[in-house]
């Protein structure tokens, strides 16, 4: 960002990262170009000539846009005077930190030296809720001309993570989570308490897994790691954080552990010399906790209990264990389960993948993400006009769920977000507008998420699904909702078994389809009645066999176009039209969204198809017909 005054505050980390995300996204899948580009924005001071030259060498032929973007940044890189930020030192809560801060700003020149000095001098990590670091970040933003600091949006700071807070099992963790992600960052104490009481609490696995899914969604495959090499060549496995930063993080963790202690938020674990005691197993632990293999119920940072006990019994310095603690009791805190759906088995990663010699591999166009930070990557399933080159992905505009959120929803979609005030069970529905912000929010009725269902003498929490006999059931705010199958039991008579079909309401297994007014085809009138439709709300025959334009319901100056849809709302109240009326003279825009007509001819858009008087068969490019 440009600043003609030459008096930028110390840290422009946030804006620099955002600019780097935009510029380097133009590198696409070209790894070398992307890495040299990212190095420009990781620098602690003005990028050096060799860094700029490397970007030009590796990226000039790939993306002129990237070169232009980087040049704009490097040419406008401001000269920094660290003493301009001396006033921030007074925000430090500790007197020793205040003195260290002033001494460092007066003596150090580069950002990296200053940041490292502050971390060492103040004995704290740079957290955005710490008043000292908050001052640096705020002053960094405030000096940029033309930049307006907006209040937090109605979604709170992070609407996606706020969703997870309702999954907390304890009121303490629910309140802490809400405080951290609602309208303002929690204070340092709140973050420390969340780390201590919630981050490793086994009863909070549902909330923690949700937070992990938002923060680091599972991605297919892992490759190009230089330290955690046993994780490479696993194209069909899922990982949360397979990247160079986590690879380096695992190496750094090992170096720290080699000093004889593993520091956790609530306990320090003394260990023997891990360079000699089970080094490969310790490496698998460090890599697993950083790369985070995905499991259905696990947030990806818990190794299995048996592995934990084994390695601490062999390599833990048991004479120095905290009082009243053993290997088993420590692992009960850190890794309380051996259920493979909830933990990472180290044995898998003690050896390289069996897929060593790669000839072909499974890839995903959106991993790694090639799009700018404010856009959503979607796989291009529409294809391209014949002969035209095209990318296997497209970047579409979206909205973030709060100013501190990285979670993006597609433009035009409706999204449910928690109330920004943090009331549990209170939500609003918003739309993602063209401005890139969530707008037109409407409050919904609050739901009592604390209400549970009692089933067979057992308590089932809100939102859980389970089976009762052969029916699938769920508990919603204290109400039990189940499918309607009749189930056989050991007490069922021979006559019951003979007439049993397994269908809802034990309807006969005969296919005589009916079409409901909601646009859905049901296998029989019995099943339609079983799901709640009245006789006047369906007619015989499948919905696809019906012509909603015969007789023509549209005015004379308009044409009727079939628009089949299935409605989830109360269709008897809101209707569920299966057609639309369009002007006879259509003007089509140039947006390509191919469709296929009933003669298997492809058109550039639905509008173009209707313009030519054809009928829609399906959306998307025409598929090759196979004849047997």
From TrEMBL:
<keyword id="KW-0722">Serine protease inhibitor</keyword>
<dbReference type="InterPro" id="IPR036058">
    <property type="entry name" value="Kazal_dom_sf"/>
</dbReference>
<dbReference type="InterPro" id="IPR002350">
    <property type="entry name" value="Kazal_dom"/>
</dbReference>
<dbReference type="InterPro" id="IPR056978">
    <property type="entry name" value="CC4_RECK"/>
</dbReference>
<dbReference type="GO" id="GO:0002040">
    <property type="term" value="P:sprouting angiogenesis"/>
</dbReference>
<keyword id="KW-1003">Cell membrane</keyword>
<keyword id="KW-0336">GPI-anchor</keyword>
<keyword id="KW-0449">Lipoprotein</keyword>
<dbReference type="Pfam" id="PF07648">
    <property type="entry name" value="Kazal_2"/>
</dbReference>
<dbReference type="Pfam" id="PF22955">
    <property type="entry name" value="EGF2_RECK"/>
</dbReference>
<dbReference type="Pfam" id="PF25028">
    <property type="entry name" value="FnI_RECK"/>
</dbReference>
<dbReference type="InterPro" id="IPR056976">
    <property type="entry name" value="EGF1_RECK"/>
</dbReference>
<protein>
    <recommendedName>
        <fullName>Reversion-inducing cysteine-rich protein with Kazal motifs</fullName>
    </recommendedName>
</protein>
<keyword id="KW-1015">Disulfide bond</keyword>
<dbReference type="Pfam" id="PF23332">
    <property type="entry name" value="CC4_RECK"/>
</dbReference>
<dbReference type="Pfam" id="PF25027">
    <property type="entry name" value="EGF1_RECK"/>
</dbReference>
<dbReference type="InterPro" id="IPR039016">
    <property type="entry name" value="RECK"/>
</dbReference>
<dbReference type="GO" id="GO:0005886">
    <property type="term" value="C:plasma membrane"/>
</dbReference>
<keyword id="KW-0646">Protease inhibitor</keyword>
<dbReference type="GO" id="GO:0030198">
    <property type="term" value="P:extracellular matrix organization"/>
</dbReference>
<dbReference type="Pfam" id="PF23298">
    <property type="entry name" value="FZ_RECK"/>
</dbReference>
<dbReference type="GO" id="GO:0098552">
    <property type="term" value="C:side of membrane"/>
</dbReference>
<dbReference type="GO" id="GO:0001955">
    <property type="term" value="P:blood vessel maturation"/>
</dbReference>
<dbReference type="GO" id="GO:0016055">
    <property type="term" value="P:Wnt signaling pathway"/>
</dbReference>
<dbReference type="GO" id="GO:0004867">
    <property type="term" value="F:serine-type endopeptidase inhibitor activity"/>
</dbReference>
<keyword id="KW-0325">Glycoprotein</keyword>
<dbReference type="InterPro" id="IPR056979">
    <property type="entry name" value="FZ_RECK"/>
</dbReference>
<dbReference type="InterPro" id="IPR056977">
    <property type="entry name" value="FnI_RECK"/>
</dbReference>
<keyword id="KW-0732">Signal</keyword>
<keyword id="KW-0472">Membrane</keyword>
<feature type="domain" description="Kazal-like">
    <location>
        <begin position="499"/>
        <end position="545"/>
    </location>
</feature>
<keyword id="KW-0879">Wnt signaling pathway</keyword>
<dbReference type="GO" id="GO:0008191">
    <property type="term" value="F:metalloendopeptidase inhibitor activity"/>
</dbReference>
<keyword id="KW-0677">Repeat</keyword>
<dbReference type="InterPro" id="IPR055134">
    <property type="entry name" value="EGF2_RECK_dom"/>
</dbReference>
<comment type="similarity">
    <text>Belongs to the RECK family.</text>
</comment>
